Amino acid sequence: MALEHAILVSLLEQPGSGYELAHRFDRSIGRFWTATHQQIYRVLGRMGADGWITAEQVDQRGRPDKRRWSVTDPGRAVLTDWLREEVQPEAVRHELAVKVRGAAFTDRAGQVALLVEVARYRADHEAVLARYLAGERRDFPGTVPADDRAALQHVVLRGGIAYERMVLAWLDDVLATLRGLDH
Fold it and tell me: Which parts of the sequence belong to the Transcription regulator PadR N-terminal domain (predicted)?
C-alpha cells in the first residue's frame, strides 16, 4: 500500500486540510499506516498535481488561509483499481520478539532489563486498546451500524481491538516466561 491510498481513503471519509489529515493519521490511521506530517504534505502536493485530489481555498479570520482537499473522480478510480489488486501477506518486523529470543543469550540482569521493557511496551498497548474501546463506545454505540461506511469502519476498529488483545495476551505470556526463567 502506498501512502496515497491511505490519504485517498481518509479524504473520502472526510475532506480536510493537510493539518487535519495529519492529525487523523496521528489519531487513527497511523495505527495501520504511519506517515510524518512532512510526508503527508509532500504526497498531497503530488496527488493534487496528478489530479487525484483538488483543493478548495478556505479563508480563516486571524489565521492563514488553508486548503481543504477532496478526492476527484480520477482519484476514486485510482482507489477502485487499487482495491482490486491482490494483497500479499506482509513480512512482520518485530524488534521486541527478536529481543525476547536474544534474552536466552544474556545474563539475568539483561533478562530483568528486558522484563522492564516488556512491561513498558505492554502498558503502551494497553493504552492503545483503551483508546480503541473508548472510540468504539463513542462512534458505534448501537449494535447495528448505520450504513455500509460505518460497518466497514467498525470492522477495521474491531480488528484493531482484536489485534491489541492478542498482543497483550502474548506480552503476558512473555512476562510470565521471563519471570519463570532459571536464575
Answer: 7-80
Say whether pTM exceeds 0.85: no
H helix runs in 50-182, sequence order: 73-83, 95-102, 108-139, 148-179
Query: Residue 153: beta bridge partners?
Result: none
User: Which amino acid is located at 83 in the chain?
Assistant: L
* The pLDDT value given to residue 183: 61
Query: For residue 93, what pLDDT band results from cuts at 50, 70 and 90?
Result: confident
Q: How many CB atoms lie within 10 A of CB 155?
A: 10
User: What residues form DSSP beta bridges with 71?
Assistant: 53
- Which three-class secondary structure state does DSSP give residue 53? strand
Residues 6+ apart with CB under 8 A from 74: 50, 51, 52
Residue 69 in 3-state DSSP? strand
The strand pairing partners of 54, in sequence order, are: 70
